[in-house]
Write a structure and sequence with these properties.
Low-confidence stretches: 1-20
Strand content: 5-15%
Largest sheet: 3 strands, mixed
Distance between the termini: 30 Å
Radius of gyration: 17 Å
Helix content: 40-55%
Number of helices: 6
Strand order of the largest sheet: 1-3-2
Structural class: mainly alpha
Bound molecules: zinc ion
């Protein structure tokens, strides 16, 4: 089974941790958005609770019946602004077709690029369609920072991820145009590779 997505989050979130099981604050779970992948298939949202670290995470994949889905894990532990961000980040992996491509090596440049692209698409969508203002953007960044610290990410990973999101928030493109640009670039790269071969 192919695991995509905020795989960094999950891998670490479900690993061993010395963290005590203190009672974390719980939030209401946001309604999932509607999401359609690059092939026009509707994406299902499913819930799961578990893991020792009480952090929200998401995963984009297809199940045994090839149904595209997003797994929403532990959403109750994060504020709704961040829950929606994860939903749209995972949806972006479906919209860009990441889910149907072989998973690049974890933490390699291609993987990190895919993550930055999904972050960017999610932030633009939330800005344009959900009226995310600076306050909501800050709520997303703070929740992300808190979880990434808890999981044990180095500061450089956290700050570069957040600065990418801030830059995306300022971009003039909308998420749909951005997805098109990404598709075109991928097609060009594939053409170049074909030419070389
Ligand atoms: Zn991701």
């Amino acid at each position: 089974m192919k695991f995509l997505a905020i795989s960094l989050f999950i891998a670490l979130a479900f690993n061993n941790s010395a963290c005590a099981q203190e009672k974390a604050k719980q939030y209401e779970i946001a309604k999932p958005p509607s999401c359609v992948n690059n092939l026009g298939e509707p994406v299902e949202f499913r819930e799961r609770v578990g893991g020792r670290l009480q952090v929200a995470a998401g995963m984009a994949n297809r199940d045994g019946k090839k149904q595209p889905f997003v797994l929403r894990m532990n959403y109750a532990f994060s504020p709704p602004e961040f829950q929606s961000f994860i939903d749209h980040h995972e949806c972006a992996h479906h919209q860009t077709g990441d889910v149907d491509r072989p998973h690049p090596p974890r933490n390699g440049p291609e993987h990190l690029m895919n993550e930055s692209i999904s972050d960017c698409i999610a932030i633009m969508f939330l800005r344009d369609e959900q009226a995310y203002d600076e306050t909501k953007l800050n709520a997303v960044e703070n929740a992300m920072r808190k979880d990434m610290v808890k999981i044990g990410f180095p500061e450089i990973s956290i700050s570069s991820r957040i600065s990418n999101m801030k830059n995306c928030y300022k971009k003039e493109d909308g998420s749909a145009e951005f997805i098109k640009i990404i598709e075109q670039r991928r097609a060009e790269i594939i053409k170049k590779l074909a030419f070389v071969e």
